[in-house]
Design brief:
With 467 residues, the chain is an all-alpha fold. The protein has 21 helices and 2 strands. The protein has a single domain (2-374), classed as Hydantoin permease, CATH 1.10.4160.10.
């Protein structure tokens, strides 16, 4: 199987695909809001340090496991565990987590698609009304949008690694960069825009509390697509000639640069809409920012550029987010696809069919858990509140299991696979790796403080979320 495993055609193809995975809704919306609320430049600094000191070593370790074994998480843990079974659970979590995160991410992507369609149909003024979001996500149109999004993902993934994933990334990522820059330029020409820039970049160190630090790390971890088995799987498609550490650096830089640039789009837009806005009051979630606040900002543009142009800007923005979301979804669904193909010997087509059906049903449950179906809306309750099916998937897999997966990976790589084997794999394609500072840092950090930090986040989340 592994002898004819498909590969990315070049290092650039791999970097764009991995960056396509990393750049998502988290970068475009989550990051700017988080940064603005939590100390601006001070948050940026903490975030950048986490990317460099904590996330990069984990990213490198994931890619190395994939390339070494030529397998997805289940196969990779098995292969590197020399026939032992004690780590199989970590591998299984590495496939189950992306599958479940795909479910909640899919729901949001479907909403974005719906917003594009409604705006194109002339409905921007409707979307700017307070009840629109709630009405739309509980309307039958949502099911149509779901079918279209699933078809797009299927279309990309069925074509395989080189002709599907890589090709999509090579088209969508540069398009996304250009669109983002154009949006920034447009937004910065609006009145009062620079008050937003100031708010985003001027540091306020008094805001840096333990929970902000925790939030910055979770944001960075999620944003770089760690703990979801994605980089193990994509790593299994990189050639033995590629330098993993160098590639990982480029992916991390791209992801962080996009997140930063998105801040230069979102905050100036918010401030030009309302110079009195206090970012502290900005909605708590990215979801309400995208779906209720931003449509109001777009509609307000009609007084200066007219309704049609304002709608055009809105469509442009939602498309930008949509492209980012699609390349992330593709990467996350590729993990279970690869599992079914590599471990269960299904054809790619059949694997995709199985996944589209199972993930489709769960996505349906999550979609109707915003009021349409009582059973899923009031699915369970914990920590003193009723939780929907969507909440549960989000709380369990995104918030809790993600750092746990990272923790397991660090311990496995350092103490089971062993550091010298990691070093060996990382020097393939990079003759100067052994003995370098990077090697010493990666080996030291993965075996010591990174798992400790991830354990802290995991325990803290469990305590805060569920008790
Ligand atoms: N990095 C993505 C983001 O910031 C997270 C993600 C990756 C989500 C892959 C789903 C799949 O939005």
């Amino acid at each position: 199987m592994s002898a004819n495993r498909e590969q990315f055609s070049s290092k650039l193809g791999f970097i764009l695909a991995a960056a396509g995975s990393a750049v998502g809704i988290g970068n475009l919306v989550g990051f700017p809001v988080n940064a603005a609320k939590n100390g601006g430049g001070a948050f940026l600094l903490v975030y950048a340090l986490f990317v460099l000191l904590v996330c990069l070593p984990v990213m490198v370790a994931e890619m190395a496991m994939g390339r070494k074994t030529q397998k997805e998480p289940v196969g990779a843990y098995k292969a590197l565990n020399n026939g032992g079974t004690g780590w199989n659970l970590a591998g299984l979590l590495g496939v189950l987590t992306p599958f479940m995160i795909a479910v909640f991410y899919m729901v949001i992507t479907v909403w974005i698609f719906g917003y594009i369609a409604i705006t194109l149909g002339g409905g921007l003024d409707y979307l700017a009304t307070p009840q629109a979001f709630g009405e739309f996500i509980n309307s039958p149109y949502i099911f149509g949008a779901m079918v279209v999004v699933a078809a797009i993902i299927n279309f990309i993934l069925v074509a395989g690694v080189k002709n599907g994933i890589e090709k999509a990334a090579k088209t969508l990522m540069p398009t996304l960069f250009i669109m983002l820059v154009l949006m920034v330029v447009f937004v910065l020409t609006r009145d009062n825009a620079f008050a937003g820039v100031a708010f985003f970049v001027i540091p306020d160190f008094s805001k840096i509390t333990p929970s902000v630090v925790n939030g910055a790390l979770s944001q960075a971890f999620f944003s770089l697509s760690l703990g979801m088995g994605i980089l193990i799987t994509y790593g299994s498609y990189i050639s033995k000639k590629a330098d993993i550490v160098g590639s990982a650096k480029l992916v991390a830089i791209t992801d962080t640069a996009v997140a930063f640039t998105a801040g230069l789009m979102i905050l100036p837009a918010v401030f030009s809409f309302n110079p009195q806005v206090n970012p502290q009051e900005l909605s708590d979630s990215s979801v309400s920012l995208i779906f209720t606040f931003l449509p109001k900002i777009f509609l307000a543009l009609q007084s200066s550029i007219g309704y049609v142009a304002a709608s055009g800007i809105a469509v442009f923005f939602f498309m930008l987010v949509f492209f980012a979301a699609i390349t992330s979804l593709v990467s996350i669904i590729e993990v279970p696809v690869s599992y079914l193909v590599t471990e269960k010997n299904h054809t790619r087509k059949k694997a995709l069919f199985i996944l589209m059906m199972t993930a489709g049903v769960l996505t349906l449950f999550a979609t109707v858990s915003f009021g349409m179906v009582g059973f899923f809306t009031e699915f369970t309750s914990y920590a003193g509140g009723t939780r929907s099916f969507f909440d549960v998937v989000y709380d369990v897999f995104y918030d809790t299991i993600l750092p746990l997966n990272g923790l397991l990976l660090c311990v496995f790589v350092s103490y089971r696979w062993k550091k010298h084997r990691l070093s060996e794999e990382l020097s393939v394609g990079n003759d100067n790796y052994q003995g370098s500072f990077a090697e010493k840092y990666i080996n030291f950090s993965l075996g010591t403080f990174i798992p400790v930090i991830l354990l802290g986040i995991f325990l803290n989340t469990v305590a805060v979320k569920f008790f």
